Input
Amino acid sequence: MNYLLIFIFIYIVSSGVNMGKKRFFDDRLKYLSFIQNTGEKRAISSEIYSHIKSLPQNKTYLRILDAGTGDGTIKSNVIKSFHKFHPYTSLLITGKEISYEDLKNTLEKMPDRFVEHPNLMVTMTNVKFSELGRIENAKKIRDKKVKVYTLVLKEDNSFDFHDQINKLGGFIKKNWGIEIDSKGKTSYSNPCLLRIYREDHKRYLEPFINNDYENNNYDLVIASQAYRAAANTKSKVTNVIAPLMRILNKSGKLLITHSCGGDSVEKILKIAWEDRVPFPSKAKNIVDFLKENPVGENSKYSYSKTKNYTFKFRRTPDQTVSELFGHGIDAKWANILYVGQIPEKDIQSVEKNSLLSKKIKGAILKEKNMFFKNEIFCIKKIR
Output
């Protein structure tokens, strides 16, 4: 039996997926294939480290927001680098994630981080970008009661921390669901706030729990692949970037990184869809829009130069079939479609065309070293 079909069946049964519900953001298997077969998570983390290092050294605590944690790899790497550069500073790190599966994956990576950096409070929430500034002290959001759970970790080792974090499964399964509105947009079933910290560091962290948060914005916000590449500039700014800019501290930074294709990716997408522009809105378009449409009447921001960085498809050994994602050529094609965020109906239309499919496969075979390209830029709040 096909390994992929087995995996799909196990995944659906184990996660209790309602087959009538649309999966969040992109097909889950395409996402898993992409993070399995490329080095994007490592590449993004490497671009962030210098910004962690440059955070203020004279503060007793720093607040960081990961505005889309995904599987938690980047969030975990941020905490590791924070401990290297700020070992004695309290870290209050918040993650935004609507996906039930990704929340579980993120929490799986946290026990060791609480051992390495004891003065740590991890917060997770599933609300929209525009609601992040209110979730810490709101009782209701959009007429829905905020579901709050605080886990105070006992003991001092990752084994016990892992066991206690695993017991959050009941709260998560009950409350961390998704709903699809009449327009097909994904939202949360309940607005949720989950806090975790160590009991033996409670005296350092508890003051922040009962804080009003009115003047307690973020020192660093990380927005990694926080919107669809094909979305227009206005949509990206209005729905994602502007709300994140508003919750920056003075001198706080918003790091934005997103896909911008790369020669290999764009060439193959052009063969499949000659008239499609998969990456119509890039960093320059966003910065130009923000300069023409300033965020906040009394706020001022500066914009860094945009930097491009690449990561590549990681080949499996010759003649080896990946257990989950097939031959290299199939995995490359799936990863290109994921980055280009191509709708399923368009994919099916191309794959039914045998001559076009053969042409695409031929082009992929010629790309021995397939590179993907991202952009990263920084918005800093001056006042």
